[in-house]
Amino acid sequence: MSMTNLNLNDYLAQMYFNPTPAVKTSSVSSALSALSGGAAATVQDAYTGFGSITDSLSLSPASLQNYSDHYLFDKLTSVANEKSNGQYKTLGQVGADLAEELNSFNTFASGLLALTGVTTPVTLQMNGKGGLFQANDTKDSGKVAELLHGEHANKLTSQFALVAARSAILEAAKDPQFTTDYNSNPPGTMEKYEDQLKNLMLSYQLTLDKGTATPSFA
Fold first, then answer.
1. Among residues of the chain, what percentage have pLDDT more than 90?
2. Are 40 and 60 spatial neighbours (Cβ–Cβ below 8 Å)?
3. With contact defined as beta carbons under 8 Å apart, do 48 and 55 qualify?
4. Helix residue ranges, H only, 81-152
C-alpha cells in the first residue's frame, strides 16, 4: 500500500475547521505518511504549528474515510455545478472538458516522470486517502513513489481527481436512467448516484507511457 500524503489544510477544510496556515507542513506530511508505513493502525498524531502554538491532530481510519468521502464528492459536485451561458453543462460538454483536462494532466505528469528518470509505463490510481498510488509494479516504482509524495503531489492528485470525476460521470451515463437524471438535474444526480460515482472514481486508472495516457477502470 502506498504512503498517504495528505494536505493538512485541505483535510481541516473538509472537516469544517478554518485554521491559519500551517508552518511545519513537512512534519505533517511525514507523520501522515506513517499511516500506511507500519505505524499505529488506529490513531496517528500529526504535529504542526499554528502561529506560536504547537498542537496535534489525531487521524483515525474513520476520519480518513470521512475526508475521502468529502473530497470525492466535492470533485463530483464541482463538475455538476459548472455552467455555460447560465445553463448546467451537458454531458457532451463534460466530455469535451475531460479531453482537455486529460491532455493537460498527461503533459504535466509525463513531464515530471521524464524529469524523474522514469522510463517504464506508470498506472496511476487514487488511494482513497487524498493521494495517488502506482497500481503497477515496475523497476521505476521507487522513483514514482518519490514523485507522488513530493512537492508536486497535491497538484497531481487534484488534477487527477477532476479527470476521474468527469470520467466517472461519463461512465455512469452509459445507463440511460443516469443520463435522464443528469439532463434534468446534474447536482441532484450526484447525490442520487453518490456511492456509484465514488467507486468509479476510486477505480479509475491512467496508464502513462511514452507521452500517451490510456484511461481504464480497474
1. 67
2. no
3. yes
4. 91-116, 141-148
Mean pLDDT of 192-212: 97
pLDDT tens-digit map of 31-67 = 344 443 433 333 333 333 344 444 445 567 777 677 7
Residue 178: how many CB atoms within 10 A of its CB?
A: 19
Q: Cβ neighbours of residue 85 under 8 Å, at least 6 residues apart?
A: none
Distance CA 142, CA 147 (A): 9
Quick check: 32 and 88 in contact, CB under 8 A?
no
What is the bridge-based pairing of β-strands 122-126 and 83-84? unpaired
Give residue for cell 495528505. 6
Q: Contact 199/217 with Cβ under 8 angstroms?
A: no
Retrieve residue 119's grid coordinates. Answer: 522510463
* Amino acid, single-letter form, for residue 162: L
What is the sign of the dihedral through the CA atoms of 216, 98, 113 and 37?
negative
List pLDDT tens digits, range 7-36: 444 444 444 333 333 333 333 344 344 443
Take residue 73 and report the three cell numbers written for it: 464528492
